[in-house]
Each structure stands twice: as C-alpha cells, then as structure tokens.
Amino acid sequence: MIELMVALAVLVILVTVAYPSLQSVTNSNRLTAAANESMAMLQNARLEAIRNNRRTVACLSANPQAAAPACSANGATGWIVFLDGDRNGQFGAGERLLRVTTMPTGIQLRSSAKFAGLASFRSDGLARDAAGALLNATVDMCMPVSEPVQNVRHVSIGTGSRLSITKASTPQACGTPADNPQT
Fold first, then answer.
1. How do residues 100-151 score in pLDDT, each as one tens digit?
2. 3-class SS at 69?
3. Torsions phi, psi for 110 (to 5 deg)
4. What does the DSSP assignment read for 7-25?
5. Which residues pair with 89 in a beta bridge?
6. How far apart are CA 127 and CA 158, in angstroms?
C-alpha cells in the first residue's frame, strides 16, 4: 500500500511539472501549423497567377468554408485563394475559387496596414498593393497566451514577393503587426 501511495505521489508531481510544458508545445505547434499553412496559401496564389497568366488573390476570410466566402480581415478564421477576373479583390460570381483553409482553434489572424487582408498577385508572380507598388507587408498568426513565450508568427511578404516566417513575443496579447516587423 505504501508503494502505491509513493508511486501516485511521484505521478502527481510529474504531471504537475509536465503539463505547462505540454501546453507550450501544443500551442507552439498550432502556431507553426498556422504560419506554414498561411505561407502555403500565399505561395499557391503566386503560382496560380503565373500558371494562369491572370491576377490571383489570397485573402483573409471570416467565412472561408461558406458556399460564397468573402474577403474580410475582421474576425478572419482562414484564407481563400481565387482567380480575380474582375480585379476588384473580392471573390464574386463567375470567379474560380482555387483553395480554402481554416486556421487551428485559438489562432487569431491579424494583417498589417499595407496587407489590408489580401495579397493580389499579378501574372508576373509579384504581389502589389492597391497603388501598384510591390507589396511589403505582414500577416500575424497569434495566440493570446503566455506559453509559448514566442506566441506570434509573422508571415511577411517582402519586396519581390519573398515570403518569410519569423517568431515574436507579445505575451497574452495580439496586436496589429507592423508592415516590416523587426522581431
């Protein structure tokens, strides 16, 4: 009986020590998966623009799984990629939806001012802003938690449409990312 009590006490101590670490690993994996999927969506939009020789848009969406999803940075839960035949940056009738994804539970999507919820790729494969300049912007995947410490993943589109992912810390908060984050 004493051996059983000692074994249970050791088990309780191990679980108490391991749980925060397990939670950190789980949250970190969710953030990494969201960042990788976001990068894949942007790369897919760029590839489709080149392949189809037509403007393609990758945008944040609050209803990506709907029959007629819409681009919206507010309350975004996922991404849509479509051929933008009328060049208005919104998915509409007659336009072909190419790819849809929803982010893992607990992930908040935030876009920088220049990103404004979407990236429009021209047939040359370069993302441009509304004024026609090369897009230089960021989308954040964030979890408002303290574990892991680096609770943000920046997916950045640099001049020339280079894509990169970097980690950052904003403990228990998610804010609007800078167009060119330094961390």
1. 999 998 999 999 999 999 999 999 999 988 778 899 999 999 998 888 888 9
2. coil
3. -135, 135
4. HHHHHHHHHHHHHHHHHHH
5. none
6. 9
pTM: 0.86
Q: Give the 3-state secondary structure of residue 59.
A: strand
Specify the length of the chain in residues: 183
CA pair distance 108, 106, nearest whole angstrom: 7
pLDDT value for 182:
64
CA dist 18 and 133 (Å) reads 49
* Encoded tokens for 182: 């330094």
pLDDT of residue 136: 93
Q: How far is CA 144 from the centre of its chain?
A: 15
Among the listed residues 57, 125, 139, 124, the one whose alpha carbon sits nearest the alpha carbon of residue 97: 57
Q: Which residues of 132-160 are buried (b: 16+ CB within 10 A; e: fewer)?
A: eeebbbbbbbbbebebbebbbbbbbbeee
173-to-24, 105, 112, 138, 181 alpha-carbon distances in Å:
16, 16, 16, 17, 16
